[in-house]
Specification:
227 residues; mainly alpha; Ribonuclease iii, N-terminal Endonuclease Domain, Chain A; Double Stranded RNA Binding Domain; 2 domains; 10 helices
Length: 227
Amino acid sequence: MTGHPVSEAEEVIKYVFGNSDLLEIALTHSSCINEDSIGKDYERLEFLGDAVLELVTREYLLTEYPDESEGDLTRRKIRIVQRGNLSTHGRRMGLDRLAHVGRGFVSSGSAVESIAADIVESLIGAIYIDSGLQSAKEFITREILELSIDTGPLPDARSQLQEYCQAKGVRLPEYRITGRKGPDHSPIFTVTVSIAGKEAGTGTGLTRKTAREKAAEKALEKLERMV
């Protein structure tokens, strides 16, 4: 990860900046601050880019999947904007290689993955400031959305919640029955799912399986707001 000409970065992302300073900031890791007279890093642009990515992804999914429920759309959105996916696309473009980092930066596998995801979002924010939503939308659609859409069946909520926990390196979800009501021949079950010892969602259903699935859906919706 070293310095680079602006033109190389613009060629990689297929976008030419009107304000090249924005591109420099979008590629500058916080480890550079106070080194080589650099005073700005990409964190503020990353903050903005995260919001723009959310908006564009939601709109794209509404168009691509007009008949899907809010829950299914949410699960698809989580898979797209989660850091693992952003890191994959960032490294595909070579953004980790183009990043400006300080002498104290420790280049581990996880650090490279993190910086690649960060820069995807900071570039989105930079493009948005440089020339508006349409340009940012074109970049997001070309470099992320069109390469992330899975045309196969959407995995069930429990499987996706397990994938999320595995990706984060936390304990797998734990489900427990927390309620049962109604007659014996047609009971209604309530199930609560916990992640790392904390309650994450509750669901009800006519079977334990359905209640567990609903609980997982609620947990994913909660996690979606934290992604």
